[in-house]
Write a structure and sequence with these properties.
4-stranded antiparallel sheet, 5 helices
Length: 167
């Protein structure tokens, strides 16, 4: 059994790299609008800037399978745009996930039911969303702050121990 501290490496012989299939090339992302987006822990989740208040961010997510969603400030105040459907922060999160990972990967990760070849844009995903599912923002926001810590490190050629698995 693999050690939980270390990621399982991909067998490159059986990957899309070896098959000759072209790899997805991420589009340029707007990190001022959505500084953090990830496919993690059975959710497409991230942090989205307020747009109206520079000091406010929203933590948003779509859950895998059900496509239930939620959006709140980092201190758990619900988004005012949530009215039974995804708000503008959730739409921005989805757009940035598609730009970063590609529509195919987002659809596969979210386990969207139906003919996946018919899902080509965000507009094809939104009608399939579930309902609001209130969850605290702390876990996602904490992950975002942890990643921000790397921006504050002094530049060095020495390895960063917790990043060594990228090598």
């Amino acid at each position: 059994m693999p050690n939980a501290q270390f990621p399982i490496l991909i067998n490159m012989d059986n990957s899309s790299f070896a098959s000759g299939k072209p790899a997805f090339t991420p589009e340029k992302r707007n990190i001022n609008k959505v500084p953090f987006v990830e496919l993690f822990n059975d959710r497409l989740q991230g942090v989205v800037s307020s747009g109206s208040d520079l000091n406010r961010v929203y933590v948003s997510f779509f859950e895998t399978g059900s496509l239930d969603f939620y959006c709140s400030t980092n201190n758990n105040r619900p988004c005012g745009g949530l009215r039974g459907r995804p708000c503008k922060h959730l739409l921005s999160l989805l757009d940035e996930a598609i730009a970063q990972y590609g529509i195919e990967e987002v659809v596969r990760f979210l386990k969207i039911s139906g003919d996946q070849s018919q899902i080509a844009t965000r507009s094809d995903i939104i009608p399939r969303t579930g309902g609001q599912k209130k969850q605290p923002a702390s876990e996602v926001f904490s992950r975002f702050l942890h990643y921000l810590r790397y921006l504050e490190l002094e530049q060095t050629n020495e390895p960063i121990p917790e990043m060594s698995w990228f090598v």
